[in-house]
Each structure stands twice: as C-alpha cells, then as structure tokens.
Backbone:
C-alpha cells in the first residue's frame, strides 16, 4: 500500500504562490528526500504534511486515511525540527515522554519505548539531562529519539544535518542510514544538500520554483536529469552547459560546440527538436584532460582544485565558454596551461530551448 | 588600583558613583544614623541608642501598619501576577486590535497616583461612585468600600492592580515572545492540547519572568503609600494605614524623624529579607528541577 499520497497540493502566502499543484505517492517504508534551493517550497510542503501549515487546495493521505484536516498530533507523523525544538525545561526522558503522555500511552509502555530508543541512539546516559546541557549532536539524537518513540507511520526530517559540524554530519548521515533500516515507516527528509539526498534517499524529489522538477532514484536524477535546473543543481561541481548546434547526418545526434569541436552523443537524432537552440551538458567526469596529441578540443586552465583522488580543472575553450573537466589525482596541470580535453560524447546530455533534457540510451 | 589604566576606568564610572553615593548611599547611612537619635527638624537631637526600635516594638499602630502592608501585598501580588499573565496571553498576537488593547492596558501605568486615586474614588464612593450606582441599579445596597475596615484593603488592592498591571503585562509579553514557535509546533505534533501546551510549555518557559514579576511587585507593594494616603488617609481607624504611610505620618506629621527612620530601617530589612528569601527559594527550585 502507498504510504503517503499528495493530491494537487497548492499553497500561497498572500499573493505569493509557493506550491503549485504538487502530487506525489510514496511507497511503504520509502526514504524520500525533498531536494531544492531555499524558497523552492520544500519546507512548506513538509509543513503541510505535518499539519503545521494548511494547504489552500489538495489532499494529503497517509496509509489510506485522509489527514489534511486532522490536527498535527493526530496524523501519525513525527517530525525532527531543524533546530531540534526540544523543550528546554524538560530533561531528555520528559522530552521523549511528553507526546506519549498526551496520547495516553500507558506508563510501562512509555518507559519501554524510551529505553529502546535511548539504546538505539546511545543516549542512555543523557536521559536525565536538559537540552541546555548537551551538545548539538546530542540534542539532534534526542530530537530523533523523540520522533522514534512515537512509532509514527511517517518521519519528517527538516534539514536534520544542517546544524552539525562537518565531521558530525558525516557520522549522523551514516547513523540515519542505519536508522532507516530499523524503522517500519516512511521517511521524508528536506535538505538543500545534494550529498545528503543522494546518500540517504531511495528516491529524490527535486523541487524548484513552486513545483516538483523530477522524481527518481538518486542515480537517475544524477545521470538522467529531467531538465537544466536538475542538471545544474545536482552534482558538484555543476554540469557544464555549452551552446551547441546540431550537425546533419548519423543516427545519433552530433553537436558542434562554439570552438568547432563536434561531439558525437548517444542520443537518437530523431528525438531532438530540429530547429531549437540546444545546449550540450557535460559532467566533469565526461571531460577528461588528455595527452597533447590526443584528438580533442583545446582549453586554457583557469583554476585547479586538487581533491586528492581526483583533480577538477576549470578551463575556458577558445571561443570563451567555460568548461569543467576532471583529471587524475596526481595531475600536473597548473594555472594558465593549455590542455587538451577529451569529451566523452556517450555521456553527454542535451537540453532544448525549454530546458528539457535528452540522454543517451541506458548503458 | 595600581596602574594608571584602572584609574581611567574609575573616571568613567565616577559620575554614576557620585550620584549613587549622594542620593542612595548617603541617605541610607544617614537614615541608619538618624534612627539612633531622637530628633526633629529644628534641634540637633540626642542619642537614644536602640530607643526608637524598642518603642516601635511596643507601638500597636506600627504593628497594625505592618500587618496591613503584608495583607495588602498578599492581595495584590498573586492576583496582579495572574491578571498580567492572562492579559499578556490574550494580547500576544500580531493583530491591530491586540496592539490597541496592549496600549489601553498599559496606559494606566503612566498615570500618577493622584489621578489613579481620583479615578477610583469616583468608582468606589458608595453614594456617587460607579459601583454604588451599579449596585443601586441592581437593587442592592451599595458597599461602603472606603469606610468599611474589612473592605478598604481589598479596595486598595483593586486600585493598585488596575494601576500596576501594565508593566508586568509588558514583561510577560516580552517573555512570551522569547518562546520559539518551533517549540509550540513540536508540542502540536506531540498531540498537546491547549491546556497541556499552556501548563507544560508556556508556563515553564515563563518561569524566570514570573519570578522577576513577583519579586519586583513584592518589593514595590510592601512600599505601598500614595494610594492609601490619598484614597483613605489610612482610615477608617487605621485599617488601611501601611508601613510607609506610618513612617510618613511620623516624620512629616509629628516630626519624629528618628522614630520614622527607625521604622524605615525595619521596613528596609523586611523587604530585603523577603526578596532574598524569594531569590533563595527560586534558586533552590531551579537547581532542583535542573538536577532532574
């Protein structure tokens, strides 16, 4: 059975529309990430599901029950807030027990659930502390614990890792992934961090500009972006987009970029709109820095980022267009160098003037 | 004070220190000194040691005035605190009408005690007052608020609450606005009803404000003076004479400055003791609840 279903959800604040006709179905026990920039409407959507905002139109269903008219506490959802929102005057045990007491769960059951959650999250030694006496990471665990003990049908995580330092964020990310295996519920996480979304989610919902841009598993989002926004938002560094024009001939589309180089893509020629202004999309790993004599296009290096296992090369083609390429970790490329770039046409993407993406056949 | 820098620092606080010394420290010490003398405005007076204090201990009028003070403070402080909190809760919203009502409820706080007592005289007077008129209209006997010794302290308390509610209300409003929305959202998701939210989220979050309001108001109401002097002049038969009114009468009615100073010292020590006790008690309560 479907876990969560959104049907035609709309929301405006005053005259500003923030969500337009959002529909979505979650599978049981699915981990979904709402990924998008600030102001894309993802947090509003989460709050509508939680009942903290009312949608102007549309329906929210959870496990076959319509919940959009229920108060937040009766929806069977639990939320982990960005700033944790722990009750400052209650200790950890009381924080976790509060919701259960309100729901009139028997005392023995409350104790059992708190003990279980505390063991899983390794916060047993913190149960008598107050939020003010704990680190951010510990408060985060308590906030997750408070959601866990409610045994909800759906977990809502609002930017759960954004307040943690880099090391703790990585650790918590791993723990969230492990936690996901334990809970018998669907999870929705709002994030603007694509690495979080890619590593944790079964499916990513990319949001921008009031609407869902693309829904799909992380690798599909990455390798077959539906449009220019998704292509540029997901992936770091961002995909290079070059103005290109279609060259006649062949089954697969061949595109000529500004400096005259012709790239042979794996995209069927007849799928592309014939007269449109096209853009060629290239992930850094599809553009390799090659040896001097390789048959390739030439570019001038403007910036080199050495990441250890690989090197990112920001370069400029002879016609002035910027391009991002990748080289080995031990690359000797330096600023101002003229390098030859080998473009892997089979991995190239094409976007039409509407921004719609076209990709080669799945390898 | 060894280096030059320390002296320069002292220069900055010197104006305040000078003012503080002249209008607070000096009168305090001077009052203590005066309380050991029998003195009026005209003579040098003579040293009586603890004489004034012994006399006060046996003065039934002073004793009654202290009891009246405690009684009226006990009527005012809890009621005022609760009333101010309820007002703040109902006016803690962004609407325009709430802003207007906040202004109205605060406006009484800017009035002088003279105006306040005048207003309440019009309300409380049994023959021509508002309450008397209402009682007559309902066919009831008007209550003689200002001339019945059992009703005069409640009348004083009501007047004071009406006058003083604005500032505590403001403190509670500030306290309410410090509570993050997220906490209330978390409570909503935790299925907390209105009462659970109020008693488990709002009230505990306002605890420091409550302590502040109670301490400030206790210290203020133990010094209640103007209302009692202007509304009833301490009457009927001393039933509304407060401690400060007693020492005012001693000092500026009978010109017994030493005796009045001794009464002032005792009141000072009482207020200090009450405030310190409250401080200690809330500190202990906080420590206990913090320890779980």
Residues:
């Amino acid at each position: 059975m479907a876990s969560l279903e959104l049907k035609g959800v709309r929301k405006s604040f005053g005259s500003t529309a923030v969500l337009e006709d959002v529909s979505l179905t979650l599978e049981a026990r699915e981990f979904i990430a709402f990924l998008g920039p600030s102001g894309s409407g993802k947090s509003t959507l989460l709050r509508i599901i939680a009942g903290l905002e009312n949608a102007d139109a549309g329906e929210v269903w959870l496990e076959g029950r319509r919940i959009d008219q229920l108060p937040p506490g009766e929806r069977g959802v639990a939320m982990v807030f960005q700033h944790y929102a722990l009750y400052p005057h209650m200790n950890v045990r009381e924080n976790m027990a509060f919701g259960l007491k309100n729901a009139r769960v028997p005392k023995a059951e409350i104790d059992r659930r708190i003990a279980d959650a505390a063991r899983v999250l390794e916060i047993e030694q913190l149960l008598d502390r107050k939020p003010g006496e704990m680190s951010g990471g510990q408060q985060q665990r308590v906030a997750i614990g408070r959601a866990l003990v409610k045994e909800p049908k759906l977990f809502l995580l609002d930017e759960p890792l954004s307040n943690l330092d880099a090391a703790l964020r990585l650790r918590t990310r791993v723990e969230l992934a492990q936690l996901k295996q334990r809970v018998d519920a669907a999870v929705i996480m709002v994030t603007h961090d694509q690495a979080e979304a890619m590593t944790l989610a079964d499916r990513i919902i990319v949001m921008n500009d009031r609407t869902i841009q693309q829904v799909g598993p992380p690798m599909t989002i990455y390798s077959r972006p539906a449009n220019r926004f998704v292509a540029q938002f997901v992936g770091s560094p961002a995909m290079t987009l070059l103005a290109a024009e279609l060259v006649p001939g062949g089954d697969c589309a061949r595109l000529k970029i500004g400096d005259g180089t012709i790239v042979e893509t794996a995209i069927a020629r007849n799928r592309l709109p014939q007269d449109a202004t096209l853009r060629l999309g290239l992930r850094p790993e599809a553009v390799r820095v090659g040896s001097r004599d390789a048959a390739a296009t030439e570019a001038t290096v403007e910036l080199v980022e050495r990441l250890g296992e690989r090197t990112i090369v920001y370069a400029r083609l002879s016609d002035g267009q910027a391009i991002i390429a990748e080289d080995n970790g031990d690359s000797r490329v330096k600023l101002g160098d003229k390098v030859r770039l080998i473009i892997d046409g089979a991995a190239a993407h094409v976007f039409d003037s509407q921004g719609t993406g076209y990709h080669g056949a799945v390898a | 004070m060894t280096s030059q820098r320390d002296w320069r620092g002292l220069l900055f606080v010197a104006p305040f220190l000078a003012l503080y010394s002249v209008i607070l420290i000096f009168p305090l010490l001077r009052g203590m000194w005066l309380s050991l003398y029998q003195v009026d405005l005209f003579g040098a007076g003579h040293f009586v040691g603890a004489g004034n204090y012994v006399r006060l201990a046996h003065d039934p009028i002073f004793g009654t005035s202290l009891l009246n003070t405690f009684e009226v403070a006990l009527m005012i402080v809890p009621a005022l605190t609760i009333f101010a909190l309820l007002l703040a809760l109902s006016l803690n919203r962004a609407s325009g009408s709430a802003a207007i009502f906040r202004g109205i409820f605060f406006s009484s706080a800017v009035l002088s005690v003279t105006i306040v007592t005048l207003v309440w005289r019009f309300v409380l007077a049994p023959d021509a007052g508002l309450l008397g008129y209402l009682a007559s209209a309902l066919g009831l006997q008007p209550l003689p608020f200002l001339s019945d010794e059992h009703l005069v302290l409640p009348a004083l308390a009501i007047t004071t609450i009406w006058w003083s509610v604005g500032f505590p209300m403001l403190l509670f409003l500030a306290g309410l606005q410090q509570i993050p929305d997220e906490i209330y959202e978390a409570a909503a998701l935790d299925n907390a009803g209105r009462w659970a939210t109020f008693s488990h989220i709002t009230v505990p979050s306002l605890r420091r404000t409550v302590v502040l309001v109670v301490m400030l108001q206790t210290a203020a109401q133990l010094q209640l003076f103007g209302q009692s002097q202007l509304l009833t002049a301490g009457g009927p038969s001393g039933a509304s004479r407060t401690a400060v009114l007693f020492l005012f009468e001693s000092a500026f009615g009978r010109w017994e400055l030493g005796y009045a100073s001794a009464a002032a010292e005792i009141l000072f020590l009482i207020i200090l003791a009450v405030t310190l006790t409250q401080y200690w008690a809330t500190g202990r309560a906080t420590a206990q609840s913090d320890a779980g």
Notes: The longest strand of chain A covers residues 4-13.
